[in-house]
């Protein structure tokens, strides 16, 4: 009963969050520091010491003398010289170049700059160029469907950023929140792409069913393997947030697994439903059993490639850890017991199993829906001459 109450609470709170301004990631109750700010700048010139590449990696200290023009904030257009220290540690050092756009941390006292240093090079403008090319490609290749895909991506982004994350930060159960948001994302995506029709209904049933199966497996295995959800630095940082929220870290782990599996399952559900719709239109005389069989055959072809997609995606994300374990010849039994590896294995297998079961669920739903008299879509009748 408590879970059901929380489910409906989350559902109605979504409406509130979607009507409010973009959430601020900073704690608004925390004391402000008006004397310091992070602004943008551009490197005008630089004096780089000669670095002995053979010694690079040892912890020697070098200094870059960097002349930076501030391009934002109170000290805009002013030029400052910053000494950028290089320790020789490749993991931490960054060699700047003339023309680089950078983020500057500036501290001021009584309107005068007292300290400044370079935080990092800016990357957002390059990411924006890539995003624009992505949108252009969707419109160029996809046409109207591409435009609809952009709309669904925006809705998904808003639901994740303005609803899912804020609700979890407020202390709501991440498992219930994720299930609700995932269902909304699946339904809205398929409806916008394909409209209100039998193809969409079948895809929604199969996708949500597959996601639920993946979620049940992920939750069960997380409990059985006693995963803490604290295997990475980001998760550990959540323990010290200024909001003081007490997180259910296993629930957060489950949430990530569901979000990760949802895309592939959604793709499978829509592919099978769309293919079966074309088969049904081309051969209306097919029985429900024959139509389901056709859907299963299509699904078997898709299954292998989509499972590989999940496996390769998660393997790529864990490449550094896998290389370290391989370099030290760690036995497989020990590798599987390392929490980050166990987490990824559960993530891969639960998502893949959810994907596998989405195939028969979609095929069965489509088979009955496409032969349902109430949902039969009228086909144009050609006049005989």
Automatic annotation (TrEMBL):
Residues annotated as signal peptide: none
Keywords recorded for this protein, A-Z: Membrane, Transmembrane, Transmembrane helix
Keyword Transmembrane: yes
Domain of life: Bacteria
Manganese among keywords: no
InterPro entries in UniProt: YibE_F
Transmembrane spans: 126-143, 150-169, 175-196, 203-227, 247-266, 310-328, 348-370
Record's protein name: YibE/F family protein
Originating organism: Alkaliphilus metalliredigens (strain QYMF)
